[in-house]
Amino acid sequence: MELVEHHHEHLTVKRQCELLSVNRSSTYRKPKVTGPDEETIGIMHKIDAIHTAHPTFGYRKITDILCKNEIINRKRVRRLMKAMDIITIYPKPNLSKRYHAQYVKPYLLRNLKIVRPNQVWGVDITYGAPITGC
Fold first, then answer.
1. Which residues of 45-71 are buried (b: 16+ CB within 10 A; e: fewer)?
2. Pairwise pLDDT comparison (102 vs 53), residue with the higher score
């Protein structure tokens, strides 16, 4: 139950707030929270059906499919997909970093004390002679 009546016969909202010692800005009506209408629910079902059949389609491709039967823009499709938590399945960047980590070879000479000649050998392959053809 609200303390302030917005349609009172004799007292204005301002006077009611003064009598109750309530800040007038806190007495404004709260908008009704309503769910999506029938049309939006129908579009959401169509988006879900398209996404289920083709999970790699993004909002642009889904908009192209929906535009054949209805007038709808990509911004609405994108907003509805976001509200439905629908994300497109596609390769994300840097997916192969963990896969290539298994090929990193350990440095075997890290804790080795080199104390005598010919104990460790190394090869430098940074320079290659050009191959000349006949």
1. ebbeebbeeeeebbbeebbeebeeeee
2. 53
- Burial of residue 80 (CB within 10 Å: 0-12, 13-18, 19+) is buried
Q: How far apart are CA 46 and CA 48, in angstroms?
A: 5
For residue 101 the two structure tokens come to 């980590």
**8-31 mean pLDDT:** 82
Q: Are 4 and 17 in contact (CB under 8 A)?
A: yes
More confident residue, 1 or 124: 124
Backbone torsion region of residue 96, taken as left when φ is above 0, otherwise alpha when ψ lies between -120 and 50, otherwise beta: alpha
3-state secondary structure (DSSP) of residue 6: coil
Residue by residue, DSSP assigns 29-57 as PPPP-----HHHHHHHHHHHHHHHH-TT-
SS3 (DSSP) at 3: coil
Query: Which secondary-structure segment (H or E) carries 82?
Result: helix 74-83
What percent of the chain is modeled with pLDDT above 90? 38
